[in-house]
Write a structure and sequence with these properties.
Layout lengths: L1 H7 L1 H13 L1 H30 L3 E2 L5 E2 L5 H4 L4 H33 L3 H12 L6 H12 L4 H8 L13 H25 L3 H9 L4 H30 L2 H6 L7 H10 L4 H26 L8
Antiparallel strand pairs: 1-2
Helix pairs in contact: 5-9, 5-11, 9-11, 10-11, 11-14, 13-14
């Protein structure tokens, strides 16, 4: 009797293993497990470390004392840091608006060109990514400085009488930010505009709509998903940017990204820097959730 029991009992166990192997869910989990492990060690664990660090206390010599301190977050309510936060939000918003104003006509033109020319134009948009980011910023410094290409050209044609003071100003920071994030707006917009069928615009014209009204009633609403996706891709990294303000703003323009970097590398106040990082993360999550609930991520974010 015992022998019969031992010979029958393994069958359910092997049947369960076979079911797990044949389950699409189990197979999918096995396929993505390397990615999940990678994200666990490179994203989740560092984020948890920052969260824990934001509640710790800074020691007298910049060391970390493992004692809960909520003052790191209440300190962010100081007028100075609120002003930096407000200026960061304003700069990110202006950067987003600037990329829309420049990127929309460009994406519209590319979407309306023949397919062979589109690939060339898209290639030209992506070419700057092949160059180091710092080199591109220094190229803009050479253009905007007092003796740079822009002032030399304007003086030569008589448009100005004295060199413009652009470099190391908020205007220079905005120019650098718009330049850096412009492709992140153009590509999602191009994806949305390219999907608009010419027959839709022809139908609007047949119904008596002039070209401008057809753009407002047909093209613009259909391209809103790409605009929303591009706004998310631009606004979020613009909030944390610190390289452009440092190089093109002459360290006179301080954003939240500069504040975080200074706390970690200069002031050696890691708990306060971590708290500022968490505040930036929360703000970007709120912004993302707000826009995704209004318009959805859409496949434009996959560009």
């Amino acid at each position: 009797m015992a022998a019969e029991t031992s010979s029958v009992s393994p069958a359910p166990r092997f049947s369960l293993i076979r079911q797990l192997r044949e389950s699409p869910h189990a197979q999918g989990l096995a396929l993505i497990s390397p990615t999940l492990i990678y994200l666990l060690f490179t994203l989740v664990l560092p984020l948890l470390l920052v969260v824990v660090l934001s509640f710790m206390t800074r020691g007298p010599y910049g060391n970390i004392i493992y004692r809960v301190n909520l003052g790191n977050y209440t300190r962010l309510m100081d007028t100075l840091y609120l002003r930096i936060l407000g200026y960061s939000l304003l700069t990110a918003a202006l950067t987003t608006v600037g990329t829309i104003l420049i990127g929309y006509p460009l994406a519209y033109y590319i979407a309306r060109t023949p397919p062979r020319q589109r690939s060339v134009y898209l290639f030209l948009i992506l070419v700057p990514f092949w160059t180091n980011f710092i080199i591109r910023i220094y190229a803009w410094i050479m253009i905007l400085r007092t003796e740079g290409l822009l002032n030399s050209f304007l003086l030569k044609i008589g448009f100005i009488q004295a060199p413009l003071d652009i470099l190391y100003t908020p205007t220079a920071v905005l120019i650098g930010m718009v330049y850096e994030f412009l492709p992140f707006m153009v590509l999602p917009l191009y994806t949305s505009l390219e999907k608009i069928e010419p027959a839709q615009l022809e139908a609007a014209a047949d119904l008596g709509a002039r070209p401008f009204m057809a753009f407002l009633r047909v093209t613009l609403p259909l391209s809103l998903p790409g605009m929303i996706a591009g706004s998310i891709l631009v606004f979020i990294p613009a909030m944390g940017m610190f390289v452009v303000p440092d190089l093109m703003g002459g360290a006179k323009t301080i954003l939240v990204g500069n504040l975080i970097r200074n706390q970690f590398l200069t002031a050696r106040d890691w708990p306060f820097g971590a708290a500022a990082s968490m505040l930036l993360l929360i703000l970007t999550l709120i912004f993302t959730l707000f826009y995704t609930r209004r318009a959805g991520f859409g496949e434009e974010l996959l560009v």
